[in-house]
Sequence to fold (409 residues):
Amino acid sequence: MPISFEPSEGSLVAQAHYRKVALEQMRPISRRYDVEEHALPREWVDYWWKEGRWGAKGAPASNDGFITVCLQAEQLCWGDAGLYLRMPTPALGGSAVGAAGTKEQQAKFMAGFRALEGQPIWGAMAITEPQAGSDAAAIETTAEYDPATEEWILNGTKIFCTAGEGASTVPGGFVVVWATLDKSAGRAAIKSFVVPAGTKGMELIGCEKKLGIRASDTATLRFENCRVPKDNLLGRAEVKKQDPTRTGDKGFMGAMATYDASRPIVAAMATGVGRASLEFLIEELARQGIQIRYDAPPRERTAIEKDVVEMEADLQAARLLTWRAAWMMNKGKPNNLEASMAKAKAGLAVTKITQKAVQILGPIGYSKKLLVEKWMRDAKINDIYEGTQQINQLIVARRILDYSSAVLR
Fold:
């Protein structure tokens, strides 16, 4: 079945709606919460919880599913990527529940989170550790089962947890924690556990001071004899050799499948930041009397025109790769390769586009009089989280060449 690169009418309505939200609700407070790092953007949180959650009032419906999610991410990150990540939603943790949990667990946990009324909630994933970044199989946080109480006991420290502050402290929130049942068993023993906010033994240590996305609460969490019920383990407790070709595997590969959903969203976020920079650059050049001659032969274009055309090509390529990965998600098709391709391309594109925009604008682009320098700082994280550029290129190479991680590393 061919892929249509034309969004449906519903998606176009949603696209216009979220651009309006970005312009009216996010852009006006973008600089403030970049400067006031870690401050809760209460006006944004309250607005989104009342107007945007789960198709509530003001959020248009669309039948494009995951493509609309990516369109939303692009438009809102055109507004502000940090505020987008501070949005009250269980989506990040919820995607892990959907990828690694049984159908019964998905119904149990997500129904409970959605039933809450009147207060914002956040979901987060706790994966990265001081000694385990790109290599998720090197996780050292442990999970030990206590048969006397039928509980799992978690011990370890997690860093760089997006939405970790809200998810761990605000009632109704939750953190999905990756931990090992047996360090000697490698990745086969890595499992995911749902830890509700306020659980005894889960402690918020603090939030990172960052280069960009400064409105986002990127937290460090400590787990010290943190007990959760037996059923909070997503999937099954058995430790056995995993078959990476089985999409229904709920162990390590099930947990890793979370990235197949999250990487296209990150790619869409990157596209939004890149588009913000590129659109502003073109508008500013036009204000100075410089028009991009798209119909001119390449040899006759100025250096600036060549740069802008190349930036636009990179941005469009990233967007189309993102939509392809999203379309495959909608169809229930395995998209591990396509998700990593979209993420890798978008991370490179947004880094290049935002840096070039600052360069072309010169001193004014580097100053804080404009948001362009902020977009350059916000851009880089898209090349790092949800798998670094190098990791995603490795995944693409392994899938294309049909090599295992042991052969190509």
